[in-house]
């Protein structure tokens, strides 16, 4: 992933983390005595390939084809994604071996000025027809861009603005460019920050920040616009603010599991957003370490996949990057991870597991509250430090995760998606003090 350099932390202080872990374990055990058939046993399970050659891709496909049904060509910034014949050869090979495919087309978004790597030159409807004819129902969609909300939270917006602010100061600026409204709103946010520092602003909402991300960065994204117009399902992965990724035009989000984040919290955030907005979701197992061996142990990966599966994930995949170890022809994946993946595949196809996907409980966060929720000092929309609500949100979230574990949904107060549209057994609000 493009931001695997980040270091994740738990949401709450150490004492609450211990309480949370113990409570979730108790919930997990208590549910196991009442197994019900999994609501959707036909999940897509596979690997996300980030190698450099068609030979590496085919080798990986041959390795996993007997215990997976999904192959994700996840190499948007890799030169291989710019080689149309290579991409077609790889995906044709995957489909011929019975795998469904999700294909990365490269980068073509509004933030990547002069850095587009989208190799498709023909109209996107021609592309769609080619893949549909090639794979039929095995062509699932396009993996487009990567971690948009993560970039929003962790990007250096001051530097980005300084780099491109000159476009606003031209005598005749191109107001039709998707960059123009983005820069205008970024300038307004900068002014708002100065006014707040000088105690002249009383704006406590994040309407402008939400507009900057959802409208200016995502809905104006030429790649997403093209995919949505052609009815091609748009996939990506992220590690925060899934609600707003969906609002911006994505159809399927993979929550990133594997690093030192709360698995239950990440699932609650993506699952709740997908349920209320009628979208699909999945999980991708990513790095635990910033250096070799990168991925977690096989047992931990198995547990993370199973937790996501029981919570209702439609897609479950393991991130295979980097491919820079000459001693391992399969990239980062080793026998330990392959065994875990095969074990998971065999288990979900032969055993009965709990269905924890039902609408049991929901936590409703404030509208447009773009707090990253990864640690107590996480940013709000990548512009602001914690505000008067973050501590209360952290406390309530930890209590409810301890009580409900992966059965909790975390959603936002949004009149376009009222909580009453889902028949939750229990609904809690962020400012409740009696939880």
Q: How much strand?
A: 5-15%
Secondary-structure-derived class = alpha/beta
Number of domains: 3
**Which strand order do you get reading across the main beta sheet?**
1-2-3-4-5-6-7-8
How many E-type strands? 11
Q: How much helicity do the residues have?
A: 40-55%
pLDDT < 50 stretches: 2-35
Overall pLDDT, averaged? 84
Say what oligomer this is: single chain
Helix and strand element order: HEHEHEHEHHHHHEHEHEHEHEHEE
Under the CATH scheme, which architecture of the largest domain would be assigned? Alpha-Beta Barrel
Report, as a whole number of angstroms, the end-to-end distance. Answer: 37 Å
What's the CATH topology label of the largest domain? TIM Barrel
H/I helix tally = 14
Sheet having the most strands: 8 strands, parallel, barrel
Radius of gyration: 22 Å
Walk me through the structure.
Mean pLDDT is 84; it is low at 2-35. The chain has helices spanning 14-32, 54-64, 84-96, 124-135, 148-154, 157-164, 179-197, 207-219, 222-229, 242-248, 263-277, 298-310, 335-350, 390-404, and strands spanning 44-49, 70-73, 100-104, 139-143, 234-238, 252-257, 280-285, 315-320, 361-365, 408-412, 426-429. Helix 6 (157-164) crosses helix 7, helix 7 packs antiparallel against helix 8 and helix 10 (242-248) packs parallel to helix 11 (263-277). The protein has 3 domains: 14-19 and 358-429, no CATH class; 38-152 and 217-350, TIM Barrel, CATH 3.20.20.70; 156-213, no CATH class. With 435 residues, it is α/β, with parallel strands linked by helices. Strand 5 (234-238), helix 10 (242-248) and strand 6 form a beta-alpha-beta unit.
């Amino acid at each position: 992933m493009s931001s695997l350099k980040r270091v994740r932390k738990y949401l709450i202080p150490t004492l609450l983390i211990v309480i949370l872990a113990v409570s979730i374990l108790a919930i997990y055990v208590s549910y196991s005595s009442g197994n019900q058939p999994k609501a959707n046993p036909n999940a897509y399970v596979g690997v996300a390939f980030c190698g450099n050659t068609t030979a590496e891709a085919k080798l990986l496909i041959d390795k996993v084809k007997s215990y997976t049904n999904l192959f994700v060509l996840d190499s948007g910034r890799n030169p291989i994604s710019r080689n149309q014949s290579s991409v077609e050869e790889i995906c044709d090979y995957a489909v011929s071996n019975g795998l469904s495919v999700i294909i990365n087309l490269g980068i073509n978004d509004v933030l990547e000025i002069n850095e587009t790597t989208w190799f498709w030159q023909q109209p996107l409807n021609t592309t769609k027809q080619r893949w549909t004819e090639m794979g039929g129902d095995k062509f699932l969609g396009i993996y487009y861009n990567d971690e948009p909300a993560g970039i929003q939270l962790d990007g250096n917006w001051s530097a980005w603005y300084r780099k491109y602010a000159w476009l606003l100061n031209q005598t005749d600026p191109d107001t039709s460019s998707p960059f123009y409204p983005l820069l205008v709103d970024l300038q307004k946010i900068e002014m708002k920050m100065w006014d707040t520092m000088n105690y002249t602003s009383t704006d406590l909402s994040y309407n402008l920040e939400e507009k900057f991300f959802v409208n200016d960065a995502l809905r104006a994204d030429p790649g997403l616009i093209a995919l949505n117009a052609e009815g091609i399902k748009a996939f990506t992965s992220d590690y925060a603010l899934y609600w707003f990724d969906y609002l911006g035009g994505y159809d399927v989000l993979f929550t990133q599991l594997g690093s030192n984040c709360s698995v239950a919290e990440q699932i609650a955030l993506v699952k709740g957003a997908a349920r209320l907005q009628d979208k699909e979701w999945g999980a991708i197992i990513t790095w635990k370490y910033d250096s070799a061996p990168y991925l977690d142990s096989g047992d931990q990966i198995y547990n993370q996949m199973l937790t996501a599966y029981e919570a209702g994930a439609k897609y479950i995949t393991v991130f295979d990057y980097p491919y820079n170890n000459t001693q391992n022809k399969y990239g980062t994946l080793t026998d330990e991870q392959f065994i875990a993946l095969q074990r998971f595949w065999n288990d979900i196809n032969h055993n009965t597991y709990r269905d924890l996907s039902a609408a049991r409980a929901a936590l409703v966060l404030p509208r447009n509250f773009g707090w990253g929720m990864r640690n107590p000092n996480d940013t709000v929309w990548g512009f602001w430090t914690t505000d008067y609500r973050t501590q209360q949100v952290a406390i309530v979230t930890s209590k409810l995760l301890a009580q409900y574990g992966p059965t909790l949904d975390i959603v936002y107060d949004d009149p376009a998606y009222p909580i009453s549209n889902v028949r939750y057994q229990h609904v809690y609000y962020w400012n409740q003090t009696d939880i």
